[in-house]
């Protein structure tokens, strides 16, 4: 890749960082959810159009697989931190439960789309050695629908078996999405009320136990003291 393409990509990345930072401070943090999606999509499009050759940037096919896994891991960490940050904000800024649920749902939706693009790029780069399935598709639209369906099925941990990850790279990406699904659905959403109390200033969740003990004491029958004659 020539020096001017490096400069163009670096400038574009800095502009994206500045844009998302400005949107977060001045308007809303919701556009921040698009950051991993846009960065991955732009780099993939550049590689698809031949503007850059990722295989020459990283050391061979193994380096490319490691780069995809590293970016997917960083993106999952980003979305998880975003979710817990919004849960904390819902306490400190007195945001209602409905708004918090909308923010968590948006983060989950963006992550599903992000993994859709990751699966598509893996399939494009490594072909049938990464995914096997019935009628995956030859054109981009068909493949997008197929991997969107696969990403949604993975997120809700429902495997139909018509599309399957068959190599270590694709399987590890599936593991990352399942882990994100567990943290989002089985932990953040199901324990949202408890987490809000934990993030409350001075609250560590012990007040729930104290309240339970007090209610038990209040419900215990009082014994009469019999005086001995």
From TrEMBL:
Matching entries from InterPro entries are given as: K_chnl_dom
According to the entry, every stretch annotated as the Potassium channel domain falls at: 113-194
| Pfam families assigned to the protein according to its UniProt record, in alphabetical order | Ion_trans_2
What is the protein name for this chain? Ion transporter
Instruction: Give residue spans, biased composition: Basic residues.
Output: 219-229
Does the keyword section mention Membrane? yes
Which parts pass through the membrane?
Answer: 6-21, 33-52, 64-84, 104-122, 142-160, 172-192
Q: Superkingdom, according to UniProt?
A: Bacteria
Alphabetically ordered keywords of this record: Membrane, Transmembrane, Transmembrane helix
Q: Where is this region: Disordered?
A: 206-229
């Amino acid at each position: 890749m020539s020096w001017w393409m490096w400069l163009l990509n670096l400038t574009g990345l800095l502009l994206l960082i500045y844009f998302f930072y400005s949107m977060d401070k001045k308007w809303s943090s919701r556009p921040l959810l698009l950051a991993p999606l846009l960065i991955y999509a732009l780099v993939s499009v550049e590689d698809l159009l031949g503007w850059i050759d990722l295989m020459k940037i990283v050391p061979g096919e193994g380096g490319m697989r490691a780069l995809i896994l590293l970016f997917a891991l960083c993106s999952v960490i980003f979305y998880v931190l975003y979710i817990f940050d919004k849960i904390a904000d819902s306490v400190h800024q007195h945001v209602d439960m409905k708004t918090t649920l909308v923010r968590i749902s948006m983060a989950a939706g963006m992550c599903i789309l992000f993994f859709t693009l990751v699966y598509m790029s893996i399939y494009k780069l490594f072909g049938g050695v990464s995914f096997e399935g019935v009628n995956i598709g030859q054109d981009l639209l068909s493949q997008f629908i197929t991997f969107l369906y696969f990403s949604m099925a993975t997120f809700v941990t429902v495997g139909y078996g018509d599309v399957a990850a068959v190599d270590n790279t694709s399987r590890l990406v599936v593991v990352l999405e399942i882990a994100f699904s567990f943290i989002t659905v089985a932990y953040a959403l199901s324990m949202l009320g408890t987490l809000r109390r934990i993030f409350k200033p001075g609250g560590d969740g012990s007040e729930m136990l104290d309240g339970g003990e007090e209610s038990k004491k209040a419900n215990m029958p009082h014994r009469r003291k019999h005086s001995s004659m």
